[in-house]
Amino acid sequence: MGEGADAHFMSMALALARRGLGRVSPNPAVGCVLVKDGVVVGRGWTQPGGRPHAEVEALARAGEAANGATAYVTLEPCSHHGKTPPCADALIAAGIRRAVIAVEDPDPRVNGKGVRALKKAGIEVDLGVGEVEARAVNEGFFKRVQHKRPMVTLKLAMTLDGRIATHTGESQWITGELARMEAHRLRATHDAIMIGSGTALEDRPRLDCRLPGLADRSPIRIVADRRLRLPLTSGVVASAKETPTWLVTLPDSDRTRRAAFEECGVTVIPVAPAAPGTEDIDHVLSVLAERGITRLLVEGGAHLAATLLQADLVDRLAWFRAANLIGGDGLPAIAGFGVDKLNQSPRFLAIDRRVLGDDICETYVRVRS
Prior knowledge:
The chain is α/β, with parallel strands linked by helices. The chain contains 12 helices and 16 strands. It has a 9-stranded mixed β-sheet with strand order 11-10-9-8-12-6-13-16-15, sandwiched between helices. A 5-stranded mixed β-sheet has the order 2-1-3-4-5, sandwiched between helices. The protein has a two-stranded antiparallel ribbon with strand order 7-14. It is globular and about 65 Å long.
């Protein structure tokens, strides 16, 4: 099968992998397509909770047709015994002839072992087809394994002059309905959504996914609340038993209030201040990664955004712009974070731009040397 066909079927596998985003942490979102004589005989993607894995799903659908087929997999098949048997062994047992793999798995338990197992079994292996796209799909998984933190997407909705509210604090709604729907879709593709305590107090957001049919895709809600200022009567606390809600606070925060939050169903996570030479927010992200978060959406406010940018922890920007102006007395989208010279300014590359009614949504990725 030629390079064009390989790229085509890998593109199908990547589309399947994206179905798992926001639902499979701490596992990667993987897609698998089985092709025999140019015909798709099986397809699968990682299921909610991280299992069954994509390869097992595809093999179950293909049945005996998998014998002699080519497997297109967006991430190296696992080779270790965890909560499920190794996918590399399952592919070998099914009798596939060839495996086209987008990228190796950085997990030390795999990291080339799956590829070697397939080759040892006499299966032809082609590595690197669709690698750039596959890395982008599982950027959060790669970040967690290699950097001990989740991928961070900073989402901001603002006016043309970069304001998120008037000087009186009015902010609902700067953007229109289509833009807000896209923001909810974005929530559905992340494991968790995080805001600062100031935003929680001022805006009282629900932080859920309210698109028809996607209510079950609401991410874990995280409020960074060092001193537990969030009222026990707030909406996120009242619904904590339905939608997982975490409060990140200091270890010496009021124990009575911590107990009250926990009684309401909130998970309170004490995080000690960072060790000398590291940032507090970096330490917070490492704690979230330890708890399985691979993709974190940050929706506010201005000070939390500035803190993340200053620490160079923002990987993607979801930039919503409304076609209106507020002026200099409005609240800025991002607080100051110490940029004195232009060469200190973090740079981003635009990868997508969409018109949503009267608004524009742009996606950027961080450019790091």
